[in-house]
Amino acid sequence: MTTILAIESSCDETSAAVISNGQLRSNIVATQVIHQKYGGVVPELASRAHQQHILPVVEKALEDAKVSKKDLNAIAFTRGPGLLGALLVGASFAKALALGLKVPLIEVHHMQAHVLAHFIEEPCPVFPFLCLTVSGGHTQIVLVRDALDMEIIGETQDDAVGEAFDKTAKLLNLPYPGGPLVDKYAQQGNPLAFPFPLSEMPGLNFSFSGIKTSILYFLQDKMKSNPQFVEENIADICASVQHTLIKMLLQKLRKAAKQTGISEIAIAGGVSANSGLRAALLEMGEKEHWKVYIPRFEYCTDNAAMIAMAAHFKYIKGEFSEQTISPMPRMAF
Ligand code: KG4
Ligand code: ZN
């Protein structure tokens, strides 16, 4: 039996997971709440919180999996992309543990791991499939030919869609991270109440920076005549913004499916937890005769289970890293 311990520390979640022969045995996530009062992730505070959390999180993951350190065959960690200081904590811990246990080290690309979260539980997509990967830092359409053979065929040219959600929330005075709150209010609102313009990007690329400005001007204009506009219309504003963002995502996804002729369609990343996106994707999937794959909520946002899954595929292929490896905040696919 091959047992791997995986560590994720790219942003504001410290997480550890254990996997044996591709079967997940534990997944512990410690979310850092410290950032809430600053309205966004503060890199230095994130690094310190990772240092505090990493040992208890790893110990709990081993305990839940009923595994001792000497049973481990490899140690995996997120190499990038992410915050340098945050990545360093996970990478240093993983390197030290691998060295001490004399087992191989496996580096994992965070965005590839989001895609591979689809293999934690059945039903799993069939290769080749398309994955719309949507998070706080990325918005990509990925052509997945095999577990370790992926190509980005479309991506954002500016903000990520998660950022658009979070910035909208900030404009509405909602606390960080705003995405889940926009989702919550949107469920009670009218998505067609306020039309916002869709961005026109060529090909399969996205742009989400324009919508933030449109929302800002829209709110400034409305508040001139009614200073209570946001409070009175929060559900309709959230529903309308969310509707626009989802429309932009799904238009390009449909275009990608047409261009590639692929009808196995998956979503991944933090924004795939959005209830409106999940519902709209299922609806489009029925119309377009796609087979749609949506991960469970806990495997959408950052977690080490997906890092462990990616490491499982790399272990099979013997793709190991050297002890001299360092984190890559801007890591290409
Ligand atoms: O993948 P993730 O946990 O971290 C990154 O790698 O960025 O994604 C975090 C992003 C944040 O922007 C957060 O607001 C967004 O995912 N998010 C949501 C929802 N849940 C998380 N956005 C919209 N609706 C949600 N329900
Ligand atoms: Zn992520």
UniProtKB/TrEMBL annotation:
CDD domains: ASKHA_NBD_TsaD_bac. GO terms for cellular component: cytoplasm. Keywords: Acyltransferase, Cytoplasm, Iron, Metal-binding, Transferase, tRNA processing. It comes from Runella aurantiaca. Gene3D superfamilies: 3.30.420.40. Fe cation binds at H110, H114, D302. It is an enzyme of class 2 (transferase). This is tRNA N6-adenosine threonylcarbamoyltransferase. Substrate binds at T133, V134, S135, G136, G137, D166, G179, D183, N274.
